[in-house]
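A note from the maintainers: we've had questions about how concatenated examples are separated. There is no special marker in the raw files; a new sequence line simply starts the next protein. For clarity in this README we add a label.
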Amino acid sequence: MPPVLPSQTPSARPHSLAEDGYAIAIGCAFIAMGLALLKQANLVTGGMAGIALLISYIIHWPPAALFLLINLPFFLFAGRAMGPAFGLKTLFANVAIMAVGLAMPAALQIARISPLFAALFGGSVIGFGILAIARHGAGVGGVGVVALILQKQRGWNAGRTQMACDILILLASLPVLSFERFGLSILSAAAINAVLIVNHRPGRYIGH
């Protein structure tokens, strides 16, 4: 009988607090950038980002500020379901998204953008921002938190779960958007979720 060799897979080591803070900050910057691109193109997307954008077209508030406000009820839920560390990191992430989003117009002004580019690039940037935050033990609130909880507890793919919720959010935007903008908004939501489906599968990487 051949000898049993020790596993060559290195044991997982937790991320340090500095690593978590850095990755979450980068993820927040990505999300704020994606929101700015979609807002400039008058598009909506899925998740809390889509709800924030949709409301911003109605009451003309900055979507980054709305993103934090509509997520407030989810912070307590996130802390109870995923632990206080997850809840605090999620709160930090949302405050950071609001701060970066409110400061962005002073640092970046977009004079012209292709709606197709905004849908694909803006959606993908938001997706990678959510991915960075999720891999470091936090969420962006709302639908994203629910999707992560279901992935952790039941093994459901976070991207597919969020896509199902996104369909409902996008349908709610029909009275506000033109048919063309509605189609591009669907594309932006697909871009976000494609990033999560490919890179955040159960058993591949949940974060340490």
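[label: protein 2]
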Amino acid sequence: MKRFGDAVRLAVGTLTTVPVPAPRVIDRRVAGAAMTLGPVAAVPLAVVAGLIVAGGNALGLPAPAVAALALGAVALGSRGLHLDGLADTADGLGASYDRAKALDVMRRGDSGPTGIATLVFTLLIQVGALTGAITAGHGVVAVVIAVLVGRCTLSMSCARGVPSARPEGLGATVAGSVPVLVAVAVGLIVAALAGLVLFGLAPGLDWWRGPVAVAVGYAAAAVLLARCVRRLGGMTGDVLGAGVEAAVAGALLALAA
């Protein structure tokens, strides 16, 4: 029970700006549980984003502005952690085919042209897709599902068998810490819940679009993860963040129309 509390604190403290006490113990078991609880920790972010979309609709604000505000609130509520990871990962992959040099570029933390361009294009995709969902009348459901799907992919990226690219850092702590069956269960559960949400809250939208959105989000994160494992020799904390943003973009695209 104590370890579960530590896992909750680690997940909330790492993935959001919600103030929580520091975990008393951080080991692989706690780290794996924290990555599995990623979508639970992100529920407040999803709720805030959903409320912004609902409020923007009620006030008659332009859909692109509402989409940008909602996604901006999510970024602010997660300290821009995943966006930073996306930019660093893009810079590393674009810098060199040499593994050590690529990891060194990612470690520096400053964003180069490749990272900035990737960040801009990804945000344009996210905002554009959410704008489409808002215009179609199911923006609240779309943003909530997408935000949670992005965090669900953390367990996949930390599943056993996925190595760490470095011997230190967040990636080394969480790499391979989630049992494969647990990671699969997280994906199946969120797919089922997405279908139920669309069936109950978006009757004008086919229920199967929910599971499809989850599948597209997971596929986007999985492709990026596979690329990083081949190029970098494993995953890092930056790769985790990049996977989250890729999954959010994929899920929103699947729910855009």
